[in-house]
Amino acid sequence: MHTRLLEELEEIFRVLSRKINSNLHKNTESGLTGSQALLLEILETQGPKRVSDLANELNITLPSVTGLSDRLIAGGYVERKRSEKDRRIVLLEITEKGRETLQKAQLIRKELMKKFYECLSAQDIEDLIRIYSKMLANIR
Question: pTM for this one?
Fold first, then answer.
């Protein structure tokens, strides 16, 4: 591989990621961080989960998920529930407030992402999808 090209690509990717994340965080009226929104999305789509399962899915440590969930619980977005099958198991479950806040955050994110990609043609977007898919397949 061409070292200079890879370094340039890495720098562009790093700056782009930082700008996207910064804009998403600044413009989120919900006050959710990206990680909090991702955790809520998992609970919304997959239902109640154990902290350990969330850590595996998000590929982060148990203490990190505990910190995220504690903040979401304090905000009223998530609640702890005992499993009906095994009372020893504690699950995290999204609340109605969490669902409403997640919907707002998703709408805001979609609008911001449209702005980021509006400078690209349909062909450019198809090329990016093809390239990103290839990269994902390579790192699995």
Answer: 0.75
